[in-house]
Automatic annotation (TrEMBL):
Top-level taxonomic group: Bacteria
GO cellular component, one term: cytosol
One Pfam family named in its UniProt record: PaaA_PaaC
NCBIfam families, per database record: PA_CoA_Oxy1
MF terms (GO), sorted A to Z: phenylacetyl-CoA 1,2-epoxidase activity
InterPro entries to which the protein is assigned, alphabetical: Aromatic_CoA_ox/epox, Ferritin-like, Ferritin-like_SF, PaaA, PaaA_PaaC
Biological process according to GO: phenylacetate catabolic process
Name of the protein this chain belongs to: Phenylacetate-CoA oxygenase, PaaG subunit
Length: 335
């Protein structure tokens, strides 16, 4: 289990609130020198408690996002237009559940219990990605989520494969491989609708793009100057690229994909800036972002209620699995 580190950093900005003792400063200097050398931190290694708490916060929110992220698309499994699309969507939603389990397991290496994290989620005390608080109104939403939401997730998660905390980095390597399938299946579904679909189906795709574009840009987090964790997280190799830089990378890549798809992006200020070598884009509605993060999005209450109901209804599965495990252990010991 993780080394019980002294709380060298107070909650908040990461600056020590009291002067460190010589020993504490030496431990911190040695830790930061290892990070600077590109070393990975394992659960048994010494770490500042602020580092541990930052990882518990981020990894648990990430895990919650994967599990809650199953709900918007799960809503369309019974209404997929073909058996092939149903099978693909089932596989994708099942993957998201698996991603959540890998990430809860990574969080547990930091000394927190999965049940504790899940209780926080159900009590509305834990964050998960704002994007999952928007409704999926048509089948085209499923394709757009794959294309834009999983596309943004890949952009944000690939750098996490080099996160300084080794269990998180290892989980991300496996997750990113599966995410590329998620994005491809979404984009492929949209290509079919745009190329072979009726005018009404093409309108459905455009409507979904209009609704999901800006919330997808919000996935990368607040602007760098409003990000209270970025400086310390980048110092400690948890965050490798800033919120704004990843957002820009996503916009630059996605504009071209939209052109191939034959959809327009709902931003009249979107245009190539030769001097910058990037696409300029319009202002993001940060009031909407903080409203949704604060629990007042279109589907926040519904998502938490669904998660809590699924947890209660699944209690028998957990009890059966635990009883089976206990029986197997007894039989192994008796053998
Ligand atoms: N939704 C909800 N809260 C968000 C957010 C978002 N999109 N972006 C930022 N926040 C919160 C942060 O959690 C933080 O609040 P807290 O202090 O209460 O935790 C606050 O806003 C300030 O933001 P910061 O930028 O300072 O926070 P971070 O340094 O943690 O950066 C992040 C935010 C980039 C999302 C980072 O946490 C991260 O990379 N997380 C891991 C990846 C992740 O969670 N990806 C999104 C969802 S997973 C997904 O889409 C899976 C796909 O398969 C469906």
């Amino acid at each position: 289990m993780y080394t019980q580190a002294m709380d060298l950093m107070p909650k908040g900005d990461g600056k020590p609130s009291v002067p460190l003792s010589a020993t504490e400063q030496q431990l911190l200097d040695r830790f930061e020198a290892r990070i600077d050398d590109g070393a990975f931190v394992e659960p048994k290694d010494w770490m500042p408690d602020h580092y541990r708490r930052t990882l518990v916060r981020q990894i648990s929110q990430h895990a919650h996002s994967e599990i809650v992220g199953m709900l918007p698309e799960g809503n369309w499994i019974t209404r997929a237009p073909t058996l092939k699309r149903k099978a693909i969507l089932l596989a994708k939603v099942q993957d998201e559940g698996g991603h959540g389990l890998y990430l809860y397991a990574a969080a547990e290496t930091l000394g927190v219990s999965r049940d504790e994290l899940i209780d926080q989620l159900h009590a509305g005390k834990a964050k998960y990605s704002s994007i999952f608080n928007y409704p999926t109104l048509s089948w085209a939403d499923v394709g757009v989520i794959g294309w834009l939401v999983d596309g943004a997730a890949i952009m944000n998660q690939v750098p996490l494969c080099r996160c300084s905390y080794a269990p998180y980095a290892r989980a991300m390597i496996r997750i990113c491989r599966e995410e590329s399938f998620h994005q491809r299946q979404g984009y492929d579904a949209l290509l079919v609708m745009m190329r072979d679909g009726t005018p009404r189906q093409r309108d459905m795709v455009q409507d979904a793009v209009n609704r999901w574009w800006w919330p997808s840009l919000m996935m990368f987090g607040p602007p760098d100057e409003a990000s209270n964790h970025s400086e310390q997280s980048m110092r400690w190799g948890i965050k490798r690229i800033s919120n704004d830089d990843l957002r820009q990378k996503f916009v630059d890549a996605t504009v071209q994909q939209a052109k191939v798809l034959g959809v327009s992006l709902p931003d009249p200020e979107l245009r190539w800036n030769e001097a910058r070598g990037h696409f300029d884009f319009g202002p993001i509605d940060w009031d909407e972002f903080w409203r949704v993060v604060g629990g007042d999005g279109p589907c926040n209450r519904e998502r938490l209620a669904d998660r809590a109901q699924a947890w209660d209804e699944g209690a028998w599965v957990r009890e059966a699995a635990l009883a089976h495990a206990a029986k197997s252990t007894t039989q192994r010991k008796a053998a």
